[in-house]
Amino acid sequence: MRLVKRLLKSILYPLYEVRLFRKLDLNATPEHVGVILDGNRRWAKANLASSKSGHSAGARKIIDFLSWCEETHVKVVTLWMLSTENLTRESAELQPLLEIIAEAVDALSRFGRWKLHVVGATELLPEWLTVRLNEAVAKSPTREELIVNLAIGYGGRHEITDAVRQLLKENLAKGANLESAIDKMSIDEISRHLYTAGQPDPDLVIRTSGEQRLSGFLLWQSAHSEFYFCEAFWPDFRRLDFLRALRDYSQRNRRFGK
């Protein structure tokens, strides 16, 4: 019976995927998609593998995902690869994770199809990793058909704090006093100092693994985003799952807080 079910799935799922893609209105594709790549460690546990294997499997999924975004005309993707909280993990787990992230970013750079941009508190990262990331970004294409933000050492609260701090420093450097610098603060001015400054806010935020919370991801930018939560662990996330997310997004009536 299990064999029959697997056989049916192997036949029907590709047909369903093709049908779903053909029905999508690519004019309604979100311009910016943010993704919380969650579930690597739980995937590893479910597959009786090491945490390192789970993170490696998740890293391999990234190029596939970006290819799906490209074919559906997404313009900006933000991938949350490492949070500021992740940096407090024990060295035995953190060091292999950092190495996997460096290798994944190197692979994206070598792939040579997308413009890479690192967003996060890079000053909190080990120097060797910052150097690797900067080299990979410098080697990535300059064309902007698809911009890929790599959120590494990223935390939403940290980003907002950094933006406000930089805005105050900028105004004080111009000779403004503290009271005047505070008075000049505005939503637009703070937005101009975010890690994603100059980019559209995310239209759609996807989180894998079944968790239904943002955990600090793009807190400022996602004020009017649509959210899609998928049960699949990130390494198991399929093109079909992504197409379902796009279909769900296209059927929503976005109100932008109105």
Fold blueprint:
Layout: H1 2-23, E1 32-36, H2 40-46, H3 51-71, E2 76-83, H4 91-111, E3 115-119, H5 127-139, E4 147-154, H6 156-173, H7 178-183, H8 187-191, E5 204-207, E6 226-229, H9 239-250
Parallel strand pairs: 1-2, 1-5, 2-4, 3-4, 5-6
Helix pairs in contact: 1-9, 2-3, 3-4, 4-5
How would you explain this protein's 3D organization?
The chain is of the alpha/beta class and 258 residues long. It has one domain: Undecaprenyl pyrophosphate synthetase (3-Layer(aba) Sandwich), CATH 3.40.1180. Helix content is 48%, strand content 13%. The protein is built from nine helices and six strands; from the N terminus they run H-E-H-H-E-H-E-H-E-H-H-H-E-E-H. Helix 1 packs across helix 9.
Given as residue ranges, the uncertain stretches (5+ residues, pLDDT < 50) are none
Termini separation (Å)? 51 Å
Query: What strand line-up does the widest sheet have?
Result: 3-4-2-1-5-6
Remind me, CATH topology? Undecaprenyl pyrophosphate synthetase
Main β sheet profile: 6 strands, parallel
The overall pLDDT, averaged over residues, is: 93
Return the CATH architecture: 3-Layer(aba) Sandwich
Radius of gyration: 20 Å
Indicate the overall shape.
globular
CATH class call = Alpha Beta
- Oligomeric description of these chains: single chain
Structural category is alpha/beta
Give the helix proportion (percent range): 40-55%
Element pattern in H and E: HEHHEHEHEHHHEEH
Hey, roughly how much beta strand do the residues contain?
5-15%
CATH superfamily: Decaprenyl diphosphate synthase-like
How many β strands by DSSP? 6
Number of helices: 9
